[in-house]
Amino acid sequence: MSTVLDRDIERILVSQEEIDRVTTRIAAELDRDYKYSKRFLLLCILKGSVVFMGDLMKKVRVPVEIDFMKVSSYSNGTESTGRINILLDLNRRDLSECDVLVVEDIIDSGRTLSYLTEYLRLNGARSVRTCTLLDKPDRRVVEFVPDYVGREIPDEFVIGYGLDYEERYRTLPFVGVLARSVYAPE
Ligand code: IMP
Ligand code: MG
Is the pTM for the entire model greater than 0.90? Predict the structure, then answer.
């Protein structure tokens, strides 16, 4: 790790080994729960979930389709603004036979997933469930309980393994706590 990154990361919160164990466990749960699904769709929410999705989809053994949506929820770095915008949609896709599993990197206020799951149901999905690598339950603004959770974490801003701060740090292979000095300089 470069010295710049060393300085920006306060500590490693979820190691590569733990991520590997968690993705293996969730994939086994999905194999069990979607065994009889006719069309099982893993829906990656760009960009943050792309690394988790890539690892998870390689470990799932039941047949899957993949697709992508992009939504924006954050506009000022580390705080949610409350507004959800769909930037890339699934339009034209018939969801009536699809059991959709929304794959998220992290749940914070709960706004993104409560909005998206409602949206997918209104668009006719056969079933809609959610899977998140990380969950910060203490931060909920709207009530939301995901179906599959990698790990609950405390209320800290994290980066790596797809998660960014101002588009940086997504390529780190672990999840780390961002040093406060990066976003709240003295
Ligand atoms: P929610 O709508 O508030 O639940 O926010 C979910 C989205 O906020 C996630 O998909 C992330 O893009 C972003 N987010 C929330 N917490 C963090 C964090 O600690 N680090 C990086 N991104 C975060
Ligand atoms: Mg995200």
Answer: yes
